[in-house]
Amino acid sequence: METGESHLELIFLPLAIFLLLLLSAFFSGSETALTGASRARLHQMEQSGNHRAGLVNRLRDKHTKLISAILLGNNLVNILASALATSIFISLFGDIGVAYATIVMTILVLVFAEVLPKTVALRRTIPVALFVAPVLRPAVFLLSPVVLGINYIVDVTLSIIGIKGYDNDGDTVTDAAQDELRGAIELHSEDAGIIMHERYMLDTILDMDEVDLEEIMVHRKNVEMVDAEKPVREIIDQVLGSPYTRLPLWKSNPENIIGIVHAKDLLRALIPLDGDYEKLEIESIALEPWFVPETTTLRSQLTAFLERKSHFALVVDEYGALMGLVTLEDILEEIVGDIADEHDLAVSDVRLMKDGSIITKGDVTIRDLNRQLNWALPDEEAATVAGLVIHEAQIIPEISQAFIFHGYKFEILKKEHNQITELRVTSLEL
């Protein structure tokens, strides 16, 4: 009778071990698939109506419970399979069977319950995640009481060693998410051959909370403005002859901006006058100026433009002094690059020379230069190339002076008063 029972054990125990190894493979593959699946792709699949993708997302939202349940199930089946194997080998070989069972189960678990399923899950992450989610959902629910107890023990242990709670700082979460996006952009730009222009577009969108208006605004010395005290005929000629549709209107002092003249508003006001332009009151058609601080971020200003349905703002410093102006087009150009139309002046601010160097105007922004040439000049301390040279040199350079920093050589070519107007920049990196 005992012999018959022994034969039954030798039949059913290996079958049980085989089933336990299948469960172990299931748990191992599930862990890899559910943690490695693309959250963005699953989100898009859920939005398209894929029920299983939504199930995967909900499981991942309960990350701690999910991992704890998977690890609990995996360890239970592995330990049980090892115990059964030990029983079989001891009955066959005596005490030495413990060593045989250890060797055999280590190989079986490692190959068929760990490496193999995880390799499959890595190669078919989304399909595997969609397959295991419906099975894991009830498993997580059934194991939840034990998981809660385990998590409680873990939390108590962590609190004893000084690790308490979760880092729920919104800024930290946002920074981590942005770093993850930057890494993904960097990775896929290499793997998928994304062109550099598209990569900079994506990077700029992520940087919009870090870039202030002072870095992209048109400086006041380059702003075309209208003197309200000029003869009306001169004002009309200036506005209609300008490449810009909106011009700041000042009176008594260029710092005293009293309005914004729009070319379309000017034309509408001229039509009823039948050529008697002297009757035109330029101040009456001017729009109210909108002043914004220079420390406003690009994202905040873009949002403000959309809310106000306005495309034009004057930038002031902390004392209220005029620093320059910014338009909706300036912000869009920061993202997509230069936007030229038939009225823009065709002027090349950066010229590539045969020896590999470039000739650039001093007021070209570092961000534009990095974007155009795929350089990595720092833009934390200065917005323009000329500003970077002055910051690093700590002096106002003279013509023909040259400086080397950050792996680039900067040679001063032209200068007006204390302003560097043209430089030659050479990359020293091979």
From TrEMBL:
Superkingdom of source: Bacteria
InterPro entries registered for this protein in UniProt: CBS_dom, CBS_dom_sf, CNNM, FAD-bd_PCMH-like_sf, FAD-bd_PCMH_sub2, Ion_transp-like_CBS, Transptr-assoc_dom
Segments forming domain CBS: 217-278, 282-345
Limits of the CNNM transmembrane domain: 6-199
The UniProt record lists the keyword Glycoprotein: no
Pfam families: CBS (PF00571), CNNM (PF01595), CorC_HlyC (PF03471)
Topological relation to the membrane, as annotated: Multi-pass membrane protein
Keywords noted in UniProt: CBS domain, Cell membrane, Membrane, Repeat, Transmembrane, Transmembrane helix
SMART domains in the cross-refs: CBS, CorC_HlyC
Subcellular location: Cell membrane
Gene3D superfamilies according to UniProt: 3.30.465.10, CBS-domain
The UniProt record lists the keyword Transmembrane: yes
Transmembrane stretches, start-end: 12-34, 66-90, 96-116, 128-154
Family note: Belongs to the UPF0053 family. Hemolysin C subfamily.
Protein name: HlyC/CorC family transporter
Organism: Sneathiella sedimenti
